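Instructor's aside before we start: the two examples that follow are unrelated to each other. I chose them only because their records fit on one page, so don't look for a connection. First example below.
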Amino acid sequence: SQVKKYNKKLLPYTIITNSSSHIIATTNSIVNPTFNTHTMADQTLLAKARKARFDDLPNFSGHPSEDVERFLKCIKNITKANAESENKEILEIVRGKLTQSAGLWFDNNEHNFKKWSDFEVQFRNRYFSTTMIHKKFDQ
């Protein structure tokens, strides 16, 4: 048969009988691989840019010498978080930068964080007072 001889694929009945769908099917098979390649390249580039920005963020361990406001400001600048942000990805970024006791605190309280302001208020309540006491002690 010609199918085996020329390694051709059999087309569904609707494509064979309807020439315009045959053209569309052929066009799609040519266009999509190029589109997907560009999309994948863009996603890879975007992922690299996000990683570089993530790497630039400071870690926060919960040590009294660390600046709570500086940490929050850095997170907000990069993620564009505002009080009403409900994007779970922002909290995942924050969690990735919390180490030691601060990371443990986040894990134990994560269920309370429905939006950015929930995290921000509770984070300040937990760590701001120890930072201020430490700064006053140093003066």
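Example two begins here.
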Amino acid sequence: MIQINSSYNNARDHYKNSLEQYNNFPDPYNNFFDHYNHSLDHYNRSLDHYNSSLDHYNSSLDHYNNFPDPYNHFLDHYNNFPDHYNHFLDHYNYSLDHYNSSLDHYKRSLDHYNSSLVHYNNSPDHYNNTLDHYNRSLVHYNHSLDHYNNHSLDHDNNFLDQYNRSLVHDNDEDWLSVLALGEMLNLSIYLSIYLSIYLSIYVNIS
């Protein structure tokens, strides 16, 4: 009976834990969906940033390619002002670095977006697995409850009936013991009387 009650309690606790996990599951699912939308927004902003950087890079490249004409035209000016050319060259290199950095950022965002998409697509499987686990736990709980109601209670009732019959049997044996003791006392009295009479007759004859 103790083992069956323990199995029933374990099944009940397992059912409660599964139910709690099932009820709490939509929260992480919704949190992930928010995270997925946030990643998508981040990806779109990175794409816009990348396109802007590409436009800036192309504009700088056009400016750089067209530079020889004004350079030849203002060669004297260039010789007098080399810092201006160096300043422009620095600006070009900076734009190129900014473009490369934006490209790396775009690639990382794309990877993060793809990873989030995979995780999002796998979320229904996780949800279905949890639901299956909950349903199996519910079946196990109902089976344990049926086993408890159909077998454990019968076992308890049979044990109680046997216990009551044992009490009746013990009471019968106690009563028989009392009767046997009474019979022995009566026999002792009869023997004492018979012995007294015999001794009286024997003394009188002598």
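The longest helix spans residues 82-205.
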